[in-house]
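Lab meeting prep.
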Amino acid sequence: MSGYQLALQQLTDSALPTGAFAHSLGFEAYIERGLVHDEESFGVWLAAFVGQQLTYSDALAIRFLYDGVPVGELDSLLTAQLLPRQVREASVKMGNRLLEIGAEIFPSPGLAEYRELVASGRGAGHQPLAFAVITRSLSVPLTEALAAYLFATVTSLTQNAVRAIPLGQNAGQRLLRKAADDVDAAAERASQLTPDDFGSVSPGLEISQMRHERQRARMFMS
């Protein structure tokens, strides 16, 4: 087993206390409108989210950091292009927790630099960038880092959907198996995109995420 494999498993484990269990990243608004209500309809939403928003924001940010774009520059770009307030705040809340956890268990000069940017107010501390800084310091190859991050996000969202819709545990596992192909496709697409593609996401997803801010009853923070 490669030296980074166990560390990567720890970083993507659902038990990592970043607060992912508290976020739907917009699918709860679809539940409220009756558009997501079962295994099939959630699978449609999940495929759209992975193929669009997750690919063109988080995955692309990870790739650009591996390409050598300064983390402070990418942090500013992510803050600007994550238009829905709750999704932006979710990225920052989970990112700051990951920075804190990483500083204790996977310290590195790159991680210390990013934490200093955040502490000084020159950065927000976004989740995909915190993840990428840690995985790059552990010498995780880009392709593996991308796939791991994307699938960890899919896993947390599916677990949240199992509780919220609700779905059975077997349905959750079927969804994860189907989503594996979407994750592979998203990682491949992110490796080919350009800076002009950064933030090119579906307006429908963003509008639904904005509606969630004023939803009367909800289980999730986003």
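Slide two material, second protein:
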Amino acid sequence: MARTGFHEVADRVFVARYPQWDVNVGLVLGRDGAVVVDTRASSLQGFEVLDDIRRLGMDVTVTHVVNTHIHFDHVFGNTAFSAATVHAHANVGRGLEADVERIKALFRADPDDGPELGYTSRDVVEVLATDVRGPDCTFEHSATIDLGDRPVSLTWAGRGHTDGDICVHIADADAMFLGDLVEESADPSFGGDCWPLEWSDTLTSHLNWLGPESVVMPGHGTPVDAAFVQRQRDDIERVARVIRERHAEGWTLEAAVAEPDDRLPYPLPALEAAIRRAWEQVPQPTTRS
């Protein structure tokens, strides 16, 4: 996938999709400034975002950056936006330093290219060279960025893909950025920091703000509508239902991660971390081989 720059998806709401890790970056324009939503995976990639904003041919001053969650492909580019205030959920602020060390250690241990994720060894070098800038402003439940003629609402409705996922809602444009709470170009990512038993409830809360004409930007892939978010929410709830049943019936963890179930909407190997995480979150009452 080639880098294509920003295109408008709603009134003064833009999105750009980048090949490395197939990540989306948002841009929201207002009378008194602009908000960038997520900043890519390195300082250099963040500067490329700034270049793409300039190519729009508008007089845009980026006054605010919002990180939808903690993961490196969404926050490492923050350093390019030195004149902007960076906003994120409080859990991002609390956990970012440790997560930076975690992801850099992983790349040092395995720096090979990832063609399926669109990155090269050069991108890895840039990730490792980036001095990551954390958020300047954090919040627990909600915050608002005032762009003069429009508010941009930031809301945390619970844990899901991580413990710090937020939605960025531009009500007057009926547009929303959901980060990796929703993915379009791949199945949802159940990583080692996900909350599989709470994720669907978090999406349900955000769905209350969406209507049939809403435009939703996922963390990865093309913009979607509310019906897509509902379907993905339902699939994530099916995963949680199977996990809860296995736990309540006293399955061992190793049996739970190995036994297929036709109700599961995603391949079982991709759900191993979700099942293991659920077992960490709820004590095991009995055992079953």
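Talking points for slide two:
DSSP finds eight helices and twelve strands in the chain.
Residues 7-225 form a domain with the Metallo-beta-lactamase; Chain A fold (CATH 3.60.15.10).
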